[in-house]
Amino acid sequence: MIFPPLTWVLLLVTAAICAIGFYKFVYFMSVGYGLAVSGIGVAIFIIALLRGNLTPAMAVLCVLLLIYGVRLGGFLLIREIKSAAYRKTLNEQTGNPVPFPVKVVMWLLMAVLYVVQTSPVWYRETAAPNGPLITAWIGAAVMAVGILLEAVADRQKSAAKLKAPNKPAMDGLYKISRCPNYFGEMTFWTGVFISGWGVLKGWQWLIAALGYVMILMIMISGAQRLEKRQNKNYGNLPEYQAYVEKTPILVPFIPVYHLVKPEK
Predict the structure, then answer these.
(1) Which helix (H) or strand (E) holds 184?
(2) CA neighbor of 172 nearest in space, from 154, 145, 190, 195
């Protein structure tokens, strides 16, 4: 079954939370994104509990979704409140006022996307008690690593910007990746995808793979935008030029140094 019964509950939860984007358009993809993932984790936890499917592995997966979303949503909100530079970047990304019909379309698209992204965990709950637990636990471990990587990277970047506001973060995790927070995000969703292995059937593989590929594409696109912005802001710094030529843009130890064509 592509869309198990009660999938509509997850859609209602994400739609309700993502409605925060009507207040500020970028929230559809930032604060609303994190909180929506948390809401899905809570919803799946409650459904599994009521249906008697709340195994320890399922509980851990749901709690990790909750932790991930609360941490990300909270971090983005706090950074916006505290950082004038970040507020400026958000305003530049939003640009002119967004027409209401466009907001409605974005609201619905994001609500569906977040359910699709988390579908491996949902499919595992609906398949209970069938399916190997080993992939659930492996997925949970990878998710936890992703959360840790992203949290540490965000903290290190904030500390670096406080110390040197006119330079990019280049220490800590930033020595092995120029976007370790994005890599942490990719790691987290890799864990989510793995958690569904062994229970996904037929078209469910397509749904789960679609959500996984979409978030990878979003992270690559985000890294491209960041590279353009950093080239503009720090391109004249010799230390930055040396840094970008020896530090992978996204995945540590994979020698891909640019996602944007260097300007001549």
Answers:
(1) helix 180-195
(2) 154
> Residue with structure tokens 């604060």?
31
Of the candidates 21, 208, 222, the residue with the CA atom closest to the CA atom of residue 106:
21
Distances (CA, A) of 28 to 3, 36, 131, 187, 220: 23, 10, 34, 22, 19
Record the tokens describing residue 168, joined without a space: 């990019």
CA distance 245 to 112: 39
Model confidence over 9-53: pLDDT tens digits?
999 999 999 999 999 999 999 999 999 999 999 999 999 999 999
Write the DSSP symbol of residue 193: H
Give residue 1's pLDDT. Answer: 78
Q: Locate the domains of the chain by residue range.
A: 7-246
DSSP structure string for 83-146: -HHHHHHHHHHH-SPPPHHHHHHHHHHHHHHHHHHTHHHHHHHHHTT-S-HHHHHHHHHHHHHH
Q: Are the C-beta atoms of 6 and 13 separated by less than 8 Å?
A: no
Contact 44, 62 (CB under 8 A): yes
- Tracing tokens 């640019």 back to the chain, one arrives at 258
Enter the pTM of the model. Answer: 0.94
CA–CA separation, 209 vs 214, rounded Å?
A: 8
79-112: per-residue pLDDT in tens?
Answer: 888 776 666 666 666 667 899 999 999 999 999 9
Question: DSSP code of 210?
Answer: H
Average pLDDT, the chain: 93
What φ, ψ does residue 90 adopt, rounded to 5°?
-60, -40
Two structure tokens written together for 9: 């509950």
Tally of helices (H runs) and strands (E runs) in the chain: 10, 0
